[in-house]
Amino acid sequence: MSKIKNLFSTPKKAIISAVVIIVILGIIAGGTVITVRAVAKSRSIGESRAEQIALADAGTEVSQARFRPTEFSFDDGRFVYEVEFYTENGEFEYVIDASDGTIIERDADIRQNISHNTINKETNAETNAGTENQTDATTENHTNAATDTVTDGKTDVATEPSADQMLVSLESAKQAALADAGMSSADVTFTKEKTDYENGISIYDLEFYSSDAEYDYEINAATGEILSKSMDTHLAQGNSSQNGTDYISVDKAKEIALADSKTDAASANFIKAKLENDDGKNVYEIEFLSGGTEYDYKINAADGTILESDFDKY
């Protein structure tokens, strides 16, 4: 006891002793955390299984996906795997319970005509059943999808839409947005088709552009009601004229970009093609995906000259 008292006999010794004790306690606490984390990870489903669960939920084959590093972390009182990957159709992010494989969160940013696998099943069910039985087929499909998910141990989380929240198909939501905008499918290109969960309801988040405007819609996935919409008008993308200058068409700008990248039009998935004013010059901004590569171009709208070009493997 006297030795312990001696450690605090002077202010200087007291300070030094206190610092040493704090450091020792920190080391002990840190070691405990590391030990708990190591035990939890050893008993978890593993990174590979977490990635398989995410791929299955997204309806994607492993050969079609490119993963970012999967992270094992502690979130909201439990250990989880954070799985992120992207394909030619979009980007996917999952938070999966490391102990049993439950999908806690999902986020999919779809580039074109691909959706969460539940929606794909719903759309197929409606197509096969026909117009007369659309509602029954959709409801039954969601019930089956929910049962399958529980069997695989991948659901029962607060953010998961229930069956009665997804009665409207993705295609129906797109048609509602197009009708409201006074456009047809042939007039526009969709750049975003995403399911989301906001304020207790499931929604479709849609973005698309035409030759002269960009549109953004949020649609209730249960009722088809348009919850919000916006339109951003940009410069006309035709053989328009400004200050006596005739512009090439957006289709011509696409052809120039495809030719420069040596890409076949049939294999290209355009995610952007619009006329912009860049430092006082009117240019076409062209972006498309093909064969695991994303291409970006800026093309002079007056004469078709390629001002900038870039590509990025993914």
**Class inferred from helices and paired strands:** alpha+beta
Q: Compute the number of helices.
A: 7
CATH class annotation of one domain: Alpha Beta
CA radius of gyration is: 27 Å
Overall 3D form: elongated
Order of helices and strands: HHHEEEEEHHHEEEEEEHEEEE
| CATH topology annotation of one domain | Nuclear Transport Factor 2, Chain: A
CATH architecture label name of one domain: Roll
- End-to-end Cα distance: 66 Å
Please state roughly what percent of the residues sit in beta strands, choosing from under 5%, 5-15%, 15-25%, 25-35%, 35-45% or over 45%: 25-35%
**Percent range for helical residues?**
25-40%
Give an overview of the whole structure.
- By secondary structure, this protein is α+β, with helices and mostly antiparallel strands.
- Among the domains are: 2-42; 241-313, Nuclear Transport Factor 2, Chain: A, CATH 3.10.450.40.
- Helix content is 33%, strand content 34%.
- It is built from 7 helices and 15 strands.
- The protein has helices at residues 2-7, 11-42, 47-58, 117-129, 134-151, 170-181, 250-261; strands at residues 66-67, 71-75, 78-87, 90-97, 103-110, 189-198, 201-209, 213-220, 226-233, 241-242, 245-246, 269-278, 281-290, 293-300, 306-313.
- Strands 1, 2, 3, 4 and 5 form a 5-stranded antiparallel beta sheet that branches. It has a 4-stranded antiparallel beta sheet with strand order 6-7-8-9, with helices on one face. A 4-stranded antiparallel beta sheet has the order 12-13-14-15, with helices on one face.
- Strand 2 and strand 3 form a beta hairpin.
- The chain starts with a helix and ends with a strand.
- The model is unreliable at 112-164 and 236-242 (pLDDT under 50).
